[in-house]
């Protein structure tokens, strides 16, 4: 039995490794009101043809009650004012891509009318699966033939920018909590303006002597006001008093400079105690 499980594990590892050779770029598509068009490319680096389908699903990165980030897809209120799906055309939506070939998927924004200035968005779910093959059942009799089939969904994001964009963020408070391995710094943010904040958070922690104990950077999307947790390993924070400095900038390597929403960086400092 163990031998069979080992063989299955090796098979699945190789299969998933093969499937991972389907690549999509860029990771985010930005479209402005001047061109109203954009594209992304699907590349099949594997040895078998793949069936590809593309679907727009409204969603964004949100934060749960513990400050953990997760993709939220069920927010009908936000969709009414921020979704680009009603104006989005995708072509082709379904196709077969041969090994070592690529396919350009094009996006067109139409009939936007007099929608207010701002940034509109959606997630793009690109599904990859094996091309369905005909199973030869000749001579099988009562025997059962099992075929494994997997599909993989790649999530990317599309933004449409119209008119004058602005975003404002304030860091309003800090609370702390702990889990088995971390001290969690929970920062509360309020966001205003007609566009999400898509930037970088720079975190620096110093102890009571002024010595630096942590310095890190993380991407931080803020579509709405939220609380975001920054877990710090407990072995870096011995009992005592600390000062944390948090800086937000609109620097983001995935976003072209010309598509970044204007934002004046802010820095807030807070003190906290580790027992």
How does this structure look, described?
By secondary structure, the protein is mostly beta strands. Strand 12 (167-178) and strand 13 (182-193) form a beta hairpin. The model is unreliable at 1-19 (pLDDT under 50). The protein has two domains: 19-131 and 149-162, Immunoglobulin-like; 167-274, Immunoglobulin-like (Sandwich). Strands 2-11-10-4-8 form a five-stranded mixed sheet, with no helix packed on it. Strands 1-3-9-7 form a four-stranded antiparallel sheet, with no helix packed on it. It is globular and about 65 Å long. It has helices at 2-19, 76-82, and strands at residues 22-25, 28-32, 37-44, 50-57, 60-63, 69-72, 88-91, 94-97, 102-109, 118-130, 151-162, 167-178, 182-193, 197-207, 212-222, 226-233, 240-249, 266-274.
What does the secondary structure layout of this molecule look like, with pairings?
Layout (H helix, E strand, L loop, with lengths): L1 H18 L2 E4 L2 E5 L4 E8 L5 E8 L2 E4 L5 E4 L3 H7 L5 E4 L2 E4 L4 E8 L8 E13 L20 E12 L4 E12 L3 E12 L3 E11 L4 E11 L3 E8 L6 E10 L16 E9 L1
Parallel strand pairs: 2-11
Antiparallel strand pairs: 1-3, 3-9, 4-8, 4-10, 5-6, 7-9, 10-11, 12-13, 13-16, 14-15, 14-17, 17-18
List descriptors.
275 residues, mainly beta, Immunoglobulin-like, 5-stranded mixed sheet, 9% helix, disordered N terminus
Estimated helix fraction: under 10%
Give the name of the CATH architecture of the largest domain: Sandwich
Distance between the termini: 50 Å
Low-confidence stretches: 1-19
Total number of β-strand segments?
18
Give the full name of the CATH homologous superfamily of the largest domain.
Immunoglobulins
Quickly count the domains: 2
Question: What is CATH's topology name of the largest domain?
Answer: Immunoglobulin-like
Give the CATH class of the largest domain: Mainly Beta
* Whole-angstrom Rg: 24 Å
Q: Overall pLDDT, averaged?
A: 89
């Amino acid at each position: 039995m163990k031998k069979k499980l080992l063989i299955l594990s090796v098979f699945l590892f190789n299969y998933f490794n093969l499937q991972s050779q389907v690549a999509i770029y860029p990771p985010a598509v930005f479209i402005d009101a001047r061109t109203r068009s954009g594209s992304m490319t699907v590349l099949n680096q594997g040895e078998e043809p793949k069936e590809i389908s593309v679907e727009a699903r409204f969603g964004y990165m949100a934060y749960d009650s513990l400050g953990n980030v997760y993709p939220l897809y069920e927010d009908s209120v936000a969709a009414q004012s921020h979704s680009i799906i009603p104006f989005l055309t995708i072509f082709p939506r379904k196709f077969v891509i041969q090994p070592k070939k690529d396919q350009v998927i094009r996006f067109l924004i139409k009939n936007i009318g007099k929608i207010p200035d701002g940034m509109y968005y959606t997630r793009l779910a690109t599904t990859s699966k094996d091309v369905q093959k005909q199973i030869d059942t000749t001579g099988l009799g009562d025997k059962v033939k099992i075929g494994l089939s997997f599909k993989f969904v790649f999530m990317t994001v599309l933004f449409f920018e119209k008119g004058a964009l602005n975003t404002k963020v304030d860091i309003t408070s800090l609370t702390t909590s702990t889990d088995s391995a971390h001290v969690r710094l929970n920062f509360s943010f309020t966001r205003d303006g007609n566009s999400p904040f898509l930037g970088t958070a720079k975190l620096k922690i110093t102890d009571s002597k002024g010595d630096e104990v942590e310095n890190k950077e993380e991407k931080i999307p803020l579509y709405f006001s939220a609380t975001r947790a920054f877990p710090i390993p407990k072995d870096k924070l011995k009992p005592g008093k600390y000062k944390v400095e948090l800086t937000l900038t609109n620097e983001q390597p995935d976003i072209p400079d010309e598509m970044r929403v204007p934002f004046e960086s802010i820095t807030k400092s807070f003190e906290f105690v580790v027992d």
